[in-house]
TrEMBL record:
The keyword Oxidoreductase applies. Signal peptide: none annotated. Keywords: FAD, Flavoprotein, Oxidoreductase. This is FAD-dependent oxidoreductase 2 FAD-binding domain-containing protein. Residues 8-314 form the FAD-dependent oxidoreductase 2 FAD-binding domain. One of its GO terms (molecular function) is steroid dehydrogenase activity, acting on the CH-CH group of donors. Transmembrane segments: none annotated. Coiled coil: none annotated. It comes from Phytohabitans suffuscus. It holds the Pfam family FAD_binding_2. Its cofactor is FAD.
Amino acid sequence: MATGVRGLRLTTRDGEVTGVRVNIADGERVVPAGAIVLATGGFDYAPDLVRDFLRGPLSRGVGAPSNTGDGLRMAMRVGAQLGNMREAWWSPVLTTPGIRSDGGRRGLLISRERALPGSIMVNRYGRRFANEAANYNAFGGAFHHLDESKLDYPNIPAYLIFDHSTVERYGVFGNPPGGEVPDWVIRAATLDELADRLDLPADALRATVDRFNTHARAGMDPDFTRGVSAYDRFPGGRMGDPDSPHATLGPVTTAPFYGARVESSALGTKGGPRTDRDGRVLDVDGDPIRGLYAAGNVMASPSGMVYGGAGGTLVIAGVWGMYAGRAAVQDQGRRAG
Ligand SMILES: Cc1cc2nc3c(=O)[nH]c(=O)nc-3n(C[C@H](O)[C@H](O)[C@H](O)COP(=O)(O)OP(=O)(O)OC[C@H]3O[C@@H](n4cnc5c(N)ncnc54)[C@H](O)[C@@H]3O)c2cc1C
C-alpha cells in the first residue's frame, strides 16, 4: 500500500481500464491493476467544476482540500456517464479563524446553534429567509434562492444572530451552558449596534427580531414553520421538552446580542460517474466500463438531492465501497475463469 500518492490518469487497453498513472516523489509511474475503485471524494475544491456543474453557489469548502475532482476527470476521460452533478451535501458553515493541518480553512457546521431558542439567521438585508432548524442539506436550497430582479443571491452570506439567553441556557460552539462565547463572535449591547458591526440594515434587523419574538412567544413560526418537525426541536429538546415548539422557538431579547457570518458550503459534492448498483462505472451508453468502479462522493450518489439522516453520507460511501470491492473481485474472477 502507498499513501500520499496522487492518482492522475487511468490507463486503458481496448476499452478496459488496466491501471493508473500516479504521481510519486521522483516523478510519475503507472501502476497496473485488474480493477480500479475510484474513491477520491468530490470536486468541492475545483472552482471550475463547482462553477460549471453545481446548481448554486458553494462559497467555500469544508472537507478535504485535496478533493479537487481528480476521480471525476479520470472517469470523464474514459467515457463515463455522469449523474447527479448539480448536487452536494449542502451545509451552512461559519468560518472561524485559523487554518487546519490539511490546509483547509476552519469552519463550524452550526447545526445546533441555529436551532436553539433565542437564535435566528438573517440574510444581508436583515431578514429571516428559512427555517433555521432545517436539516443542513435542505438548508442549501435557501442559499440558492435567486433574486431575479437584482440577479443576486440575497441569502449569501447569511448571519447567525443569538442572544445571551441562548448562551446561558444551552451554551454555544461546544461550550457548556453559561460558558464562553469565542472572541471571533461579534457582540453588542443592542441589536442596532450589532447590525452596525455586521453591516446589516438596523431597521430591518429590529423588525425581523420583533416579528420573530412575537411568534416565538406564542410557540409558532408562520413564516417558515420552524418547530413543527421533531427534527427542528431535537437540539433544544435534549435540554427541555422535545415535544414543545419552545424547544426551538424562543425570543431574541437578552443582551448582549451575538452575530457571525455564515457561508453556503457543503460537506462534499455528490455527483460523478454513474454506476450500477454494484459500483461498476457506466459509459455514456449505460454499459459497464470494464475494470472501473467508484464509491463515495466521487460517484453519482444514489441519494439524489436529499440527505437521509445522521451518517447518511458515510454509510453510502461505506456500503458502495463494499459493493464495488466485491464486484471488482467477482468480475476479475469471471474474466480469469
Ligand atoms: C466537517 C464535516 C463533518 C461531517 N460529518 C458527517 C457526519 O456526521 N456523518 C456523515 O455521514 N458524514 C459526515 N461528513 C461527510 C463525510 O465525511 C463524507 O461524505 C465522506 O468522508 C466521503 O467519503 P469519501 O471517501 O467519498 O471522500 P473523502 O472522505 O473526502 O476522501 C477522499 C480522499 O481522496 C483523496 N484524493 C483526492 N484526489 C485524489 C487523487 N487524485 N489521488 C489519491 N487520493 C486522492 C483525498 O485526499 C481524500 O483523502 C462530514 C464531512 C465534513 C467535512
